[in-house]
Design goal:
Largest sheet: 4 strands, antiparallel
Shape: globular
Strand content: over 45%
Number of strands: 7
């Protein structure tokens, strides 16, 4: 899902804390999207995660819109004309 990753950057976070108070290392800072023009920057790459977690509020604060289906989500620009990224449901996530 990452278009690019800089493992020399961590966005100012050495680690993140999960809901169960477990911490894990931030391995890098990256960009996700369908192209360099249609992308979301400053996404954290976390060591133990096998998939990307994108906070909805962060996506909306960047001016994008989330369209949810029963098993997927599309992030589009505010007028809905350009697909930025498509995600798929993984269990209850």
């Amino acid at each position: 899902m990452f278009k690019s990753i800089d493992t020399n950057q961590n966005g100012g976070f050495d680690s993140i804390t999960f809901g169960n108070n477990k911490k894990d290392k931030v391995k890098g800072l990256g960009k996700i999207g369908t192209s360099n023009d249609m992308s979301i920057s400053n996404m954290l790459l976390v060591e133990s995660l096998d998939f990307n977690l994108l906070p909805i509020v962060q996506i909306c604060d960047l001016g994008f819109k989330c369209i949810f289906g029963s098993d997927d989500v599309e992030v589009v620009n505010v007028d809905g004309s350009n697909l930025i990224v498509k995600g798929f449901r993984h269990g209850s996530l």
